[in-house]
Amino acid sequence: MSNISRLKARTRPDYRYILEYRTRWSDNDMYDHMNNSIYNFLYDSVINTYLMERCGLHPPSSPQYGMVVHSHNDYFASIAFPACAELALRVNRIGNSSVTYEIALFEKGHESVRSVGEFVQVFVDRETGRPSPKGMNPELRRGLEYLLVDSSVSKL
Asked: Do 81 and 24 touch, CB atoms closer than 8 A?
């Protein structure tokens, strides 16, 4: 099975955290579906919501914060206002200071996944802007490990 086929087969139980998002009229583009730039906005939002709720992140003052160093998205079906999106989050890999997230977008009331994206963040020290030689702080790591789908691939 190809990687795209595996992603298209994703279901909500493949993820440990789900956040609802009510689409807005302004999310649609001239083709009457959600604009591709909104997907990245939503992916960033579900990640940061989880980090703030479950990992102790306070963006303006936390000693470490995540910098996105890679992102991509695979689109399978469109979604449009006034649909409610369900953003599903998991972690596929944790390194010393990096994490690879997978985010799926589902439309509430529909089974098939609409898109699957990947974000890679490197957590850096606020003062230096560089990854800490000690890695992620323990509270952050514990929160991310909760979302980890396969601990045998936890090191980058």
From this structure: yes
Q: Which of 55, 132, 149, 57 is nearest to 98 (CA)?
A: 132
Which H or E run contains 7?
helix 3-8
**Which pLDDT score, from 0 to 100, does residue 155 have?**
41
32 neighbors 80 (Cβ within 8 angstroms)? yes
| 68-89 pLDDT per residue, tens | 999 999 999 999 999 999 999 9
Domain holding 108, by residue range, is 3-153
3-class secondary structure, 117: strand
Report which of 66, 90, 88, 86 is spatially closest to residue 147, judged by C-alpha positions.
90
pLDDT at res. 150: 75
Q: For the residues 5-18, what does the mean pLDDT come to? A: 97
Q: Select from 52, 51, 46 the least CA-distant residue to 105.
A: 46
pLDDT at position 153: 44
Q: What is the CATH number of the domain that holds 109?
A: 3.10.129.10
d(CA 74, CA 76): 7
Q: How many domains does the chain have?
A: 1
Position 46, amino acid? V
* Report field, pTM of the whole predicted structure over 0.70: yes
Average pLDDT for 47-61 = 96
